[in-house]
Amino acid sequence: MKYIKVAGVVVFLLLWQLAGQINPGIYSSPTLVVTEIVRLFTEGGLLGLVFGTVATMLLGWAFAAVIGVFTGFLIGRYRLASLVLEPYLVALYSVPLIAVVPLLVIWFGIGQTFLLATIVVATGIMLVFPTAAGTRETVRVYDQVARAYCVSGRHFLFKVLLPGALPFIATGMRISVQRALMAVIVGQFLVGHPGLGTLLSDARVRLDADEVFAVALVALAVGAALTALVGWADRTLSAWRPEVTS
Amino acid sequence: MSTQKIEIDTVGKSYETGPRKKRKVVHALKDVSLTIAPGGFVSLLGPSGCGKTTLLKCIDGLIPITEGEIRVGGKAIADPGRDRAFVFQDFRLLPWRTVLGNVCFPLETTISSKAEREAIAKKYIDMVGLTAFERHHPHELSGGMQQRVGIARALAVDPDILLMDEPFGALDAQTRELMQVELLRIWELTGKTVVFVTHSVDEAIFLSQRIAVFSSRPGTISAEFDVPFAYPRTDLGIRRDPRFTDLRQEIWRLLKGDQNSFSD
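Output (C-alpha coordinates, whole complex):
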Protein backbone atom coordinates (compact mmCIF):
# COMPACT_ATOMS: atom_id res chain seq x y z
CA MET A 1 0.00 0.00 0.00
CA LYS A 2 2.80 2.36 0.92
CA TYR A 3 4.45 1.89 -2.48
CA ILE A 4 1.21 2.79 -4.23
CA LYS A 5 1.02 6.03 -2.25
CA VAL A 6 4.62 6.92 -3.03
CA ALA A 7 4.10 6.03 -6.69
CA GLY A 8 1.01 8.24 -6.74
CA VAL A 9 2.99 11.21 -5.44
CA VAL A 10 5.77 10.61 -7.99
CA VAL A 11 3.29 10.42 -10.86
CA PHE A 12 1.57 13.59 -9.62
CA LEU A 13 4.87 15.48 -9.46
CA LEU A 14 5.85 14.28 -12.93
CA LEU A 15 2.51 15.38 -14.40
CA TRP A 16 2.82 18.72 -12.64
CA GLN A 17 6.34 19.16 -14.01
CA LEU A 18 5.03 18.30 -17.49
CA ALA A 19 2.17 20.82 -17.18
CA GLY A 20 4.73 23.38 -16.02
CA GLN A 21 6.74 22.81 -19.20
CA ILE A 22 3.68 23.69 -21.26
CA ASN A 23 2.66 26.85 -19.34
CA PRO A 24 4.89 27.72 -16.35
CA GLY A 25 3.15 31.06 -15.80
CA ILE A 26 -0.11 29.36 -14.88
CA TYR A 27 0.79 25.92 -13.55
CA SER A 28 4.26 26.61 -12.20
CA SER A 29 6.12 23.34 -11.55
CA PRO A 30 7.76 21.42 -8.69
CA THR A 31 11.26 22.63 -9.59
CA LEU A 32 10.12 26.25 -9.90
CA VAL A 33 8.29 26.04 -6.56
CA VAL A 34 11.33 24.59 -4.78
CA THR A 35 13.55 27.29 -6.27
CA GLU A 36 11.03 29.91 -5.15
CA ILE A 37 10.89 28.54 -1.61
CA VAL A 38 14.68 28.69 -1.38
CA ARG A 39 14.65 32.25 -2.75
CA LEU A 40 11.94 33.35 -0.31
CA PHE A 41 13.84 31.95 2.63
CA THR A 42 17.21 33.38 1.59
CA GLU A 43 16.20 36.75 0.13
CA GLY A 44 12.52 37.27 0.94
CA GLY A 45 12.77 37.03 4.73
CA LEU A 46 10.24 34.19 4.74
CA LEU A 47 11.54 32.72 8.00
CA GLY A 48 10.75 35.94 9.85
CA LEU A 49 7.29 36.09 8.29
CA VAL A 50 6.61 32.45 9.26
CA PHE A 51 7.66 33.12 12.86
CA GLY A 52 5.62 36.34 12.97
CA THR A 53 2.55 34.57 11.61
CA VAL A 54 2.88 31.62 13.99
CA ALA A 55 3.49 33.94 16.95
CA THR A 56 0.34 35.92 16.16
CA MET A 57 -1.58 32.70 15.68
CA LEU A 58 -0.41 31.25 19.00
CA LEU A 59 -1.25 34.44 20.89
CA GLY A 60 -4.73 34.67 19.35
CA TRP A 61 -5.29 30.97 19.87
CA ALA A 62 -4.30 31.29 23.53
CA PHE A 63 -6.86 34.09 23.98
CA ALA A 64 -9.41 31.92 22.19
CA ALA A 65 -8.63 28.99 24.47
CA VAL A 66 -9.04 31.03 27.65
CA ILE A 67 -12.30 32.62 26.48
CA GLY A 68 -13.63 29.41 24.92
CA VAL A 69 -12.84 27.17 27.89
CA PHE A 70 -14.29 29.67 30.35
CA THR A 71 -17.50 30.05 28.32
CA GLY A 72 -17.73 26.29 27.80
CA PHE A 73 -17.31 25.71 31.51
CA LEU A 74 -20.07 28.23 32.29
CA ILE A 75 -22.62 26.70 29.94
CA GLY A 76 -21.63 23.17 30.95
CA ARG A 77 -21.90 23.87 34.65
CA TYR A 78 -24.77 26.33 34.94
CA ARG A 79 -28.09 25.78 33.29
CA LEU A 80 -28.90 29.49 33.33
CA ALA A 81 -25.72 30.33 31.38
CA SER A 82 -26.54 27.59 28.90
CA LEU A 83 -30.08 28.87 28.34
CA VAL A 84 -28.96 32.47 27.88
CA LEU A 85 -25.77 31.98 25.85
CA GLU A 86 -26.30 28.87 23.78
CA PRO A 87 -28.44 30.43 20.98
CA TYR A 88 -25.79 33.09 20.30
CA LEU A 89 -23.00 30.55 20.40
CA VAL A 90 -24.77 28.27 17.95
CA ALA A 91 -25.34 31.27 15.66
CA LEU A 92 -21.67 32.23 15.93
CA TYR A 93 -20.67 28.65 15.17
CA SER A 94 -22.75 28.63 11.98
CA VAL A 95 -21.83 32.03 10.55
CA PRO A 96 -18.99 32.02 7.97
CA LEU A 97 -15.85 33.76 9.21
CA ILE A 98 -15.76 36.09 6.19
CA ALA A 99 -19.13 37.56 7.22
CA VAL A 100 -17.70 38.67 10.56
CA VAL A 101 -14.51 40.20 9.15
CA PRO A 102 -15.99 43.61 8.10
CA LEU A 103 -17.32 44.08 11.61
CA LEU A 104 -13.95 43.18 13.12
CA VAL A 105 -12.25 45.72 10.83
CA ILE A 106 -14.67 48.40 12.01
CA TRP A 107 -14.05 47.52 15.64
CA PHE A 108 -10.35 46.72 15.67
CA GLY A 109 -8.86 48.40 12.60
CA ILE A 110 -6.41 46.52 10.38
CA GLY A 111 -3.51 45.88 12.72
CA GLN A 112 -2.40 43.11 15.06
CA THR A 113 -5.53 43.50 17.23
CA PHE A 114 -7.70 42.72 14.22
CA LEU A 115 -5.75 39.52 13.54
CA LEU A 116 -6.05 38.38 17.16
CA ALA A 117 -9.79 39.11 17.17
CA THR A 118 -10.21 37.14 13.92
CA ILE A 119 -8.49 34.11 15.45
CA VAL A 120 -10.57 34.38 18.63
CA VAL A 121 -13.82 34.52 16.68
CA ALA A 122 -12.77 31.69 14.38
CA THR A 123 -11.50 29.25 17.01
CA GLY A 124 -12.88 30.26 20.41
CA ILE A 125 -16.23 28.76 19.53
CA MET A 126 -14.57 25.44 18.68
CA LEU A 127 -13.44 25.14 22.29
CA VAL A 128 -16.76 26.13 23.84
CA PHE A 129 -18.77 23.04 22.96
CA PRO A 130 -16.14 20.37 23.73
CA THR A 131 -15.42 22.06 27.08
CA ALA A 132 -19.14 22.23 27.86
CA ALA A 133 -19.55 18.54 26.97
CA GLY A 134 -16.54 17.60 29.11
CA THR A 135 -17.84 19.62 32.05
CA ARG A 136 -21.31 18.06 31.84
CA GLU A 137 -19.92 14.55 31.53
CA THR A 138 -17.54 15.02 34.45
CA VAL A 139 -20.31 16.41 36.64
CA ARG A 140 -22.60 13.54 35.65
CA VAL A 141 -20.07 10.87 36.58
CA TYR A 142 -18.34 12.43 39.59
CA ASP A 143 -20.86 14.73 41.27
CA GLN A 144 -22.06 12.02 43.67
CA VAL A 145 -18.52 10.79 44.31
CA ALA A 146 -17.40 14.29 45.24
CA ARG A 147 -20.45 14.91 47.41
CA ALA A 148 -20.20 11.51 49.11
CA TYR A 149 -16.61 12.33 50.06
CA CYS A 150 -17.41 15.94 51.03
CA VAL A 151 -15.26 17.40 48.25
CA SER A 152 -16.78 20.66 47.05
CA GLY A 153 -16.13 24.17 45.77
CA ARG A 154 -12.55 24.94 44.79
CA HIS A 155 -11.42 21.34 45.39
CA PHE A 156 -14.12 19.97 43.13
CA LEU A 157 -13.23 22.50 40.44
CA PHE A 158 -9.49 21.87 40.41
CA LYS A 159 -9.27 18.22 41.40
CA VAL A 160 -12.27 16.79 39.57
CA LEU A 161 -13.86 19.10 37.03
CA LEU A 162 -10.71 20.45 35.38
CA PRO A 163 -8.80 17.17 35.03
CA GLY A 164 -12.02 15.44 33.94
CA ALA A 165 -12.70 18.02 31.22
CA LEU A 166 -9.06 18.26 30.11
CA PRO A 167 -9.21 15.57 27.39
CA PHE A 168 -12.28 17.27 25.93
CA ILE A 169 -10.46 20.61 25.94
CA ALA A 170 -7.47 18.96 24.27
CA THR A 171 -9.79 17.66 21.56
CA GLY A 172 -11.06 21.21 21.05
CA MET A 173 -7.48 22.45 20.72
CA ARG A 174 -6.69 19.69 18.23
CA ILE A 175 -9.64 20.42 15.97
CA SER A 176 -9.09 24.20 16.11
CA VAL A 177 -5.35 24.45 15.41
CA GLN A 178 -5.71 24.33 11.62
CA ARG A 179 -8.49 26.86 11.75
CA ALA A 180 -6.40 29.23 13.85
CA LEU A 181 -3.65 29.17 11.23
CA MET A 182 -6.17 29.64 8.45
CA ALA A 183 -7.77 32.57 10.30
CA VAL A 184 -4.48 34.44 10.70
CA ILE A 185 -3.47 33.88 7.06
CA VAL A 186 -6.87 34.94 5.75
CA GLY A 187 -6.78 37.96 8.07
CA GLN A 188 -3.38 39.02 6.76
CA PHE A 189 -4.52 38.40 3.20
CA LEU A 190 -7.55 40.65 3.64
CA VAL A 191 -5.97 43.62 5.41
CA GLY A 192 -2.36 43.38 4.24
CA HIS A 193 -0.76 42.91 7.62
CA PRO A 194 2.77 41.49 7.06
CA GLY A 195 2.83 37.69 7.10
CA LEU A 196 2.17 34.60 5.00
CA GLY A 197 -1.26 35.91 3.97
CA THR A 198 0.24 39.15 2.66
CA LEU A 199 2.81 37.22 0.62
CA LEU A 200 -0.09 35.36 -0.95
CA SER A 201 -2.04 38.52 -1.77
CA ASP A 202 1.10 40.20 -3.19
CA ALA A 203 1.82 37.17 -5.34
CA ARG A 204 -1.75 37.20 -6.54
CA VAL A 205 -1.43 40.83 -7.62
CA ARG A 206 1.78 40.00 -9.52
CA LEU A 207 0.20 36.82 -10.97
CA ASP A 208 3.20 34.94 -9.59
CA ALA A 209 2.05 31.31 -9.52
CA ASP A 210 5.46 30.10 -8.30
CA GLU A 211 5.22 32.22 -5.18
CA VAL A 212 1.58 31.31 -4.49
CA PHE A 213 2.44 27.63 -4.60
CA ALA A 214 5.60 28.20 -2.53
CA VAL A 215 3.79 30.06 0.24
CA ALA A 216 0.91 27.58 0.21
CA LEU A 217 3.36 24.71 0.64
CA VAL A 218 5.14 26.46 3.51
CA ALA A 219 1.78 27.16 5.18
CA LEU A 220 0.90 23.48 4.73
CA ALA A 221 4.15 22.43 6.40
CA VAL A 222 3.60 24.84 9.30
CA GLY A 223 0.04 23.54 9.73
CA ALA A 224 1.18 19.93 9.70
CA ALA A 225 3.89 20.65 12.29
CA LEU A 226 1.44 22.43 14.59
CA THR A 227 -1.12 19.65 14.22
CA ALA A 228 1.49 17.03 15.09
CA LEU A 229 2.55 19.06 18.14
CA VAL A 230 -1.00 19.45 19.41
CA GLY A 231 -1.73 15.76 18.74
CA TRP A 232 1.28 14.83 20.80
CA ALA A 233 0.19 17.16 23.64
CA ASP A 234 -3.30 15.65 23.51
CA ARG A 235 -2.00 12.10 23.78
CA THR A 236 0.28 13.07 26.65
CA LEU A 237 -2.50 14.81 28.57
CA SER A 238 -4.91 11.94 28.00
CA ALA A 239 -2.41 9.17 28.73
CA TRP A 240 -4.63 7.88 31.51
CA ARG A 241 -7.36 7.09 29.04
CA PRO A 242 -7.08 3.56 27.66
CA GLU A 243 -8.44 4.41 24.24
CA VAL A 244 -7.52 7.74 22.72
CA THR A 245 -9.61 8.22 19.64
CA SER A 246 -7.96 10.14 16.86
CA MET B 1 -29.92 8.05 73.46
CA SER B 2 -30.38 5.13 71.19
CA THR B 3 -27.99 2.23 71.07
CA GLN B 4 -28.57 1.82 67.34
CA LYS B 5 -26.05 3.11 64.81
CA ILE B 6 -28.54 3.79 62.04
CA GLU B 7 -32.25 4.38 62.57
CA ILE B 8 -34.48 4.64 59.53
CA ASP B 9 -37.77 5.95 60.80
CA THR B 10 -40.84 5.69 58.52
CA VAL B 11 -38.89 7.12 55.62
CA GLY B 12 -40.55 8.04 52.34
CA LYS B 13 -39.14 9.37 49.12
CA SER B 14 -41.42 10.59 46.37
CA TYR B 15 -40.82 12.69 43.33
CA GLU B 16 -42.83 14.08 40.44
CA THR B 17 -42.26 12.87 36.93
CA GLY B 18 -43.71 13.14 33.44
CA PRO B 19 -44.65 16.12 31.25
CA ARG B 20 -45.86 19.30 32.92
CA LYS B 21 -49.60 18.75 32.53
CA LYS B 22 -49.59 15.07 33.45
CA ARG B 23 -47.32 15.10 36.47
CA LYS B 24 -47.38 11.83 38.36
CA VAL B 25 -46.10 11.29 41.86
CA VAL B 26 -43.84 8.27 42.12
CA HIS B 27 -43.18 6.75 45.51
CA ALA B 28 -39.66 5.37 45.36
CA LEU B 29 -39.76 4.63 49.09
CA LYS B 30 -42.72 4.42 51.43
CA ASP B 31 -42.88 3.75 55.16
CA VAL B 32 -39.42 2.26 55.38
CA SER B 33 -38.22 1.55 58.89
CA LEU B 34 -35.05 -0.28 59.82
CA THR B 35 -32.48 -0.15 62.59
CA ILE B 36 -28.89 -1.24 62.35
CA ALA B 37 -26.66 -1.89 65.37
CA PRO B 38 -23.10 -0.59 65.59
CA GLY B 39 -20.74 -2.92 63.78
CA GLY B 40 -23.64 -4.73 62.12
CA PHE B 41 -23.72 -6.08 58.59
CA VAL B 42 -27.14 -5.63 57.01
CA SER B 43 -28.07 -6.29 53.39
CA LEU B 44 -30.82 -4.55 51.47
CA LEU B 45 -32.09 -7.14 49.03
CA GLY B 46 -34.60 -6.84 46.25
CA PRO B 47 -35.27 -6.67 42.52
CA SER B 48 -34.07 -3.77 40.34
CA GLY B 49 -36.04 -0.59 40.85
CA CYS B 50 -37.31 -1.50 44.32
CA GLY B 51 -35.70 1.52 45.95
CA LYS B 52 -32.86 -0.22 47.80
CA THR B 53 -30.16 1.92 46.16
CA THR B 54 -32.31 5.00 46.73
CA LEU B 55 -32.48 4.18 50.44
CA LEU B 56 -28.70 3.68 50.56
CA LYS B 57 -28.12 7.07 48.95
CA CYS B 58 -30.61 8.61 51.38
CA ILE B 59 -28.62 7.17 54.29
CA ASP B 60 -25.51 8.82 52.84
CA GLY B 61 -27.41 12.09 52.35
CA LEU B 62 -26.84 12.11 48.58
CA ILE B 63 -30.61 12.10 48.00
CA PRO B 64 -32.98 14.05 50.27
CA ILE B 65 -35.89 12.15 51.78
CA THR B 66 -39.41 13.55 51.66
CA GLU B 67 -40.91 11.85 54.73
CA GLY B 68 -39.67 10.47 58.01
CA GLU B 69 -36.19 10.74 59.41
CA ILE B 70 -32.83 8.99 59.17
CA ARG B 71 -30.65 9.16 62.25
CA VAL B 72 -27.02 8.19 62.36
CA GLY B 73 -25.55 7.86 65.85
CA GLY B 74 -28.76 9.41 67.19
CA LYS B 75 -28.56 12.53 65.01
CA ALA B 76 -30.82 13.23 62.03
CA ILE B 77 -28.81 13.54 58.83
CA ALA B 78 -29.47 15.59 55.70
CA ASP B 79 -26.09 15.74 53.97
CA PRO B 80 -23.16 13.40 53.34
CA GLY B 81 -20.74 13.30 56.23
CA ARG B 82 -17.35 11.92 57.13
CA ASP B 83 -18.95 9.30 59.37
CA ARG B 84 -20.25 7.53 56.26
CA ALA B 85 -18.44 6.40 53.10
CA PHE B 86 -19.97 5.20 49.86
CA VAL B 87 -18.79 2.42 47.57
CA PHE B 88 -20.23 2.70 44.06
CA GLN B 89 -21.40 -0.15 41.86
CA ASP B 90 -19.33 1.08 38.90
CA PHE B 91 -16.35 2.03 41.10
CA ARG B 92 -16.30 5.72 40.02
CA LEU B 93 -12.55 6.05 40.41
CA LEU B 94 -10.82 9.13 39.00
CA PRO B 95 -9.21 7.63 35.88
CA TRP B 96 -6.47 10.29 35.64
CA ARG B 97 -5.16 9.39 39.08
CA THR B 98 -3.15 6.42 40.25
CA VAL B 99 -4.43 3.97 42.84
CA LEU B 100 -2.60 5.97 45.51
CA GLY B 101 -4.00 9.24 44.17
CA ASN B 102 -7.53 7.85 44.19
CA VAL B 103 -7.33 6.68 47.79
CA CYS B 104 -5.78 10.03 48.82
CA PHE B 105 -8.57 11.94 47.06
CA PRO B 106 -11.10 12.18 49.94
CA LEU B 107 -8.31 13.07 52.40
CA GLU B 108 -7.16 16.14 50.48
CA THR B 109 -9.82 18.42 51.94
CA THR B 110 -9.02 17.49 55.53
CA ILE B 111 -5.31 16.61 55.76
CA SER B 112 -2.84 19.19 54.46
CA SER B 113 0.30 17.06 54.72
CA LYS B 114 0.83 14.97 51.61
CA ALA B 115 3.07 12.51 53.45
CA GLU B 116 0.39 12.00 56.08
CA ARG B 117 -2.29 11.42 53.43
CA GLU B 118 -0.16 8.92 51.61
CA ALA B 119 0.68 7.07 54.79
CA ILE B 120 -3.04 6.64 55.53
CA ALA B 121 -3.82 5.70 51.94
CA LYS B 122 -1.03 3.12 51.85
CA LYS B 123 -2.35 1.48 54.98
CA TYR B 124 -5.71 0.82 53.31
CA ILE B 125 -4.22 -0.05 49.94
CA ASP B 126 -2.27 -2.68 51.82
CA MET B 127 -5.45 -3.84 53.58
CA VAL B 128 -7.15 -4.50 50.24
CA GLY B 129 -4.00 -6.19 48.90
CA LEU B 130 -2.99 -3.69 46.21
CA THR B 131 0.36 -2.44 47.50
CA ALA B 132 2.12 -3.66 44.36
CA PHE B 133 -0.26 -1.62 42.21
CA GLU B 134 -0.34 1.75 43.98
CA ARG B 135 1.32 3.53 41.03
CA HIS B 136 -1.06 2.00 38.46
CA HIS B 137 -3.96 3.80 36.84
CA PRO B 138 -7.49 2.36 37.07
CA HIS B 139 -7.60 1.30 33.41
CA GLU B 140 -4.61 -0.96 34.04
CA LEU B 141 -6.54 -2.90 36.71
CA SER B 142 -9.21 -5.59 36.54
CA GLY B 143 -12.74 -4.84 37.74
CA GLY B 144 -12.14 -6.64 41.03
CA MET B 145 -8.97 -4.65 41.64
CA GLN B 146 -10.73 -1.39 40.79
CA GLN B 147 -13.39 -2.12 43.37
CA ARG B 148 -10.67 -2.90 45.92
CA VAL B 149 -9.49 0.67 45.25
CA GLY B 150 -13.08 1.84 45.76
CA ILE B 151 -13.17 0.07 49.12
CA ALA B 152 -9.75 1.44 50.13
CA ARG B 153 -10.92 4.95 49.24
CA ALA B 154 -13.99 4.49 51.45
CA LEU B 155 -11.94 3.11 54.35
CA ALA B 156 -9.38 5.92 54.06
CA VAL B 157 -11.75 8.49 55.57
CA ASP B 158 -12.13 6.14 58.54
CA PRO B 159 -15.94 6.21 58.54
CA ASP B 160 -18.15 4.45 61.07
CA ILE B 161 -20.39 3.22 58.29
CA LEU B 162 -19.66 1.70 54.89
CA LEU B 163 -22.52 2.08 52.42
CA MET B 164 -22.03 -0.34 49.55
CA ASP B 165 -24.19 -0.15 46.44
CA GLU B 166 -24.04 -3.52 44.65
CA PRO B 167 -20.26 -3.25 44.87
CA PHE B 168 -19.64 -6.63 43.25
CA GLY B 169 -22.50 -6.44 40.74
CA ALA B 170 -20.17 -5.66 37.84
CA LEU B 171 -17.73 -8.50 38.60
CA ASP B 172 -17.58 -12.04 37.26
CA ALA B 173 -18.80 -14.87 39.51
CA GLN B 174 -15.38 -16.07 40.71
CA THR B 175 -14.04 -12.60 41.45
CA ARG B 176 -17.28 -11.86 43.20
CA GLU B 177 -16.93 -14.77 45.64
CA LEU B 178 -13.32 -13.82 46.33
CA MET B 179 -14.34 -10.25 47.03
CA GLN B 180 -17.09 -11.40 49.40
CA VAL B 181 -14.56 -13.28 51.50
CA GLU B 182 -12.23 -10.28 51.36
CA LEU B 183 -15.00 -7.92 52.46
CA LEU B 184 -15.87 -10.07 55.48
CA ARG B 185 -12.18 -10.16 56.44
CA ILE B 186 -11.98 -6.35 56.24
CA TRP B 187 -15.27 -5.94 58.10
CA GLU B 188 -14.08 -8.15 60.95
CA LEU B 189 -10.73 -6.32 60.98
CA THR B 190 -12.16 -2.79 61.07
CA GLY B 191 -15.46 -3.27 62.90
CA LYS B 192 -17.34 -0.91 60.55
CA THR B 193 -21.10 -0.92 60.26
CA VAL B 194 -21.93 -2.12 56.75
CA VAL B 195 -25.09 -1.54 54.75
CA PHE B 196 -24.85 -3.64 51.62
CA VAL B 197 -27.20 -3.40 48.65
CA THR B 198 -27.49 -6.45 46.42
CA HIS B 199 -29.97 -8.30 44.27
CA SER B 200 -28.21 -11.61 44.84
CA VAL B 201 -29.91 -13.74 47.51
CA ASP B 202 -26.79 -15.91 47.96
CA GLU B 203 -24.55 -12.91 48.40
CA ALA B 204 -26.87 -11.38 50.98
CA ILE B 205 -27.04 -14.61 53.02
CA PHE B 206 -23.33 -15.30 52.82
CA LEU B 207 -22.33 -11.82 53.95
CA SER B 208 -24.92 -10.45 56.33
CA GLN B 209 -26.16 -10.82 59.87
CA ARG B 210 -29.54 -9.57 58.78
CA ILE B 211 -31.32 -9.14 55.46
CA ALA B 212 -34.03 -6.58 54.73
CA VAL B 213 -36.02 -7.76 51.72
CA PHE B 214 -37.58 -5.04 49.59
CA SER B 215 -40.72 -5.13 47.53
CA SER B 216 -41.35 -2.56 44.86
CA ARG B 217 -44.00 -0.03 43.88
CA PRO B 218 -43.84 1.57 46.31
CA GLY B 219 -40.44 0.47 47.59
CA THR B 220 -40.72 -0.77 51.12
CA ILE B 221 -39.25 -3.46 53.34
CA SER B 222 -41.52 -6.51 53.18
CA ALA B 223 -39.59 -8.78 55.53
CA GLU B 224 -36.44 -9.06 57.61
CA PHE B 225 -34.43 -12.23 58.09
CA ASP B 226 -31.71 -13.06 60.60
CA VAL B 227 -28.90 -15.13 59.16
CA PRO B 228 -27.96 -17.87 61.63
CA PHE B 229 -24.30 -18.42 60.71
CA ALA B 230 -21.42 -17.35 62.93
CA TYR B 231 -18.37 -15.47 61.71
CA PRO B 232 -15.75 -15.86 60.41
CA ARG B 233 -17.51 -17.27 57.35
CA THR B 234 -14.46 -17.83 55.23
CA ASP B 235 -15.62 -21.37 54.52
CA LEU B 236 -17.72 -21.38 51.40
CA GLY B 237 -19.11 -24.72 52.60
CA ILE B 238 -21.90 -22.93 54.45
CA ARG B 239 -23.55 -22.52 51.08
CA ARG B 240 -24.40 -26.25 51.31
CA ASP B 241 -25.74 -26.03 54.88
CA PRO B 242 -29.45 -26.96 54.93
CA ARG B 243 -30.22 -23.76 56.87
CA PHE B 244 -28.64 -21.81 54.01
CA THR B 245 -30.79 -23.49 51.39
CA ASP B 246 -33.93 -23.15 53.53
CA LEU B 247 -33.37 -19.44 54.03
CA ARG B 248 -32.53 -19.02 50.38
CA GLN B 249 -35.75 -20.74 49.37
CA GLU B 250 -37.85 -18.70 51.77
CA ILE B 251 -36.45 -15.42 50.49
CA TRP B 252 -36.85 -16.53 46.89
CA ARG B 253 -40.49 -17.34 47.48
CA LEU B 254 -41.03 -13.85 48.89
CA LEU B 255 -39.26 -12.18 45.96
CA LYS B 256 -41.13 -14.29 43.45
CA GLY B 257 -44.48 -13.38 45.00
CA ASP B 258 -43.52 -9.73 44.62
CA GLN B 259 -42.57 -10.26 40.99
CA ASN B 260 -45.95 -11.87 40.26
CA SER B 261 -47.89 -9.17 42.06
CA PHE B 262 -46.83 -6.48 39.61
CA SER B 263 -46.07 -8.38 36.44
CA ASP B 264 -49.77 -8.83 35.56
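Residues 87 and 187 of chain A are 26 Å apart (CA to CA).
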